[in-house]
Amino acid sequence: MLAVSSASLQELVLHQTDWMDGVNIVAPVLRQLTVSFSAMEKVSISVLAPMVEMVSWRCCYFKVSIVFGVWRLEQVTLQTAQTPGQLPSLQIHASANSIFVCEEETFMHEIEKHMIAEFSVLELHLETNGHVFGALAFHVLGMNRICSAMQKLKVILQRSSVKEGCSPHCPCESMGWRSQTISLTGTEEVEISGCGGDGHEIDFLKLILKCAPMLKKMIVKLSDGASSSDDGCTNIYNIFKAYSSVELYVYLSSDYDAYQSFSICILCRVNARQPRLTISMIVMVTPGSVVIVDMIILSRTTNSVTWS
Ligand SMILES: [Zn+2]
Known about the structure:
Elements: E1 2-5, E2 11-19, E3 22-26, E4 32-39, E5 44-48, E6 54-61, E7 67-79, E8 89-101, H1 104-113, E9 121-127, H2 134-141, H3 144-149, E10 152-158, E11 189-195, H4 199-211, E12 217-222, H5 224-228, H6 230-239, E13 247-251, E14 263-270, E15 278-286, E16 289-298
Parallel strand pairs: 1-3, 2-4, 3-5, 4-6, 8-9, 9-10, 10-11, 11-12, 12-13
Antiparallel strand pairs: 6-7, 7-8, 13-14, 14-15, 15-16
The chain binds zinc ion (ZN).
Protein name: FBD domain-containing protein
Transmembrane segments: 277-298
InterPro entries: FBD, FBL15-like
């Protein structure tokens, strides 16, 4: 346990390589806090630093102890803005495997402990191993401090190269998440990376559209498998028919992380005056710039994407 109590401390930097079971800080004039530590299981956290402006916080969990269904909590990070214009973010890393313990309360409570500063972006880094992530995601999104603060949601799906898939009665599907209703009134942007266009991923996007009435922009970065088949893409376009106010960006290329080469992005925007017609553009995306190359019309009547 790290315990710091100081009336004059303005900056605290801690990189702990050994595991700790908690952090207790009382520092009324602290401005900058950098903490990185590992924990075996549940931690105890208390930070009293009302003047803090810069926070970089990271806790890694070693043991399989914080569990929600098939998901294990691996890391929680909280980062205030590093550059002007950047938004403060909370990042949750979890991985799925064959364990099944129903400890929703413990899981959510553990995440809550790390919310030691304000944030407006939530990032979910999920190693799915073929499992359905909707139940986990909507439980996290339903947490009071998250649904009230979140302006932007990023879901990063990490798929393994080995054969994925869960058993027919896998508990990842059994929690009725598809009928959940939560209110994400502050959420304006959602980005999902590694999306394969699978049924449960489409259901997740649909539910997000339903729960976030102020949503302006959705970015879908397809996984390699989805990029090579039309189905994943078409499934995604289809759900946007009913949401004319949302801009949908679909990235087909798997290069989007590296941006080494040009990647092609389809900007698909439903024209509100002519709802049957979708005006789209092919744009070339390079780091920091978007160049419009061509205007296309996307036909919604066929099952595949056609250009004209
Ligand atoms: Zn599963």
